[in-house]
Amino acid sequence: MLKGIYPGSFDPVTLGHLDIIRRSSRLVDELIVGVLDNKAKSPLFSVKERVRMLKEVTKDMPNVKIEPFEGLLVDFARRSKADMVFRGLRAITDFEYELQMAQTNHKLEPEVETVFLTTSLEYSYLSSTTVKEVAAFGGDISQFVPGYVSDCMKEKMNLKGECKL
Asked: Are 71 and 99 in contact (CB under 8 A)?
């Protein structure tokens, strides 16, 4: 059984993330979307909330599992018995960073390959940071995230008093 991991913060999950999830899930028998719990960052959504959102927006993809993780990606890959890691590339700047990470991960765990997928053109500009900035100023984020995620964003940002959606 061929198993892959698509790791990320997904704070929040965007249509660009979903594009990579959908496309990478067609290349493996099982795709684990690993939701990173990075203690050094202050995300808008908790890991539990991000996992819940991802489970909701991927429920039509039977070979996709959503799991939280912390620590090194290669350790998560070992525990998950994954053969490969998928990463999405939007621009050259992404490639430079992702190449360094892939090479480091390969040194730490030579059995796990990194597969780069270029983002579909319609999402090449999109990032979670951009979505949060647009939402913070009351902009319409419905073209950037699934409807369920848009609703979660409105609720969360209104609770925090960060926007007037």
From this structure: no
